[in-house]
Write a structure and sequence with these properties.
Length: 84
């Protein structure tokens, strides 16, 4: 069994924040910008994934497949490692 992963997703097109964990659909949390999403991710010890047209991801995370969400979370982890 693989480890459970957690992410906070900032969906930039609608300025919404979503939470996600492995094996579940993303759930809407609240309206809020990037900085709010970053604070929530840090407090939860989760990755901060970015979503929206400028990131090549249209629609909302709640309608996305597990593979699409996992790709965004993988990119977030790579971005964090590159900038650490």
């Amino acid at each position: 069994m693989s480890e459970t992963r957690y992410a906070i997703i900032h969906e930039a097109d609608g300025d919404t924040i979503w939470r996600w964990q492995t094996g579940r659909k993303a759930k809407f949390v609240e309206y809020g910008g990037y900085h709010k999403a970053r604070e929530l991710a840090a407090a939860a010890g989760a990755e901060l994934a970015l979503w929206g047209a400028q990131y090549g991801r249209r629609g909302v995370p709640g309608d996305a497949s597990q593979a699409q969400i996992e790709a965004a979370v993988d990119e977030a982890a790579e971005r964090r490692e590159t900038h650490s």
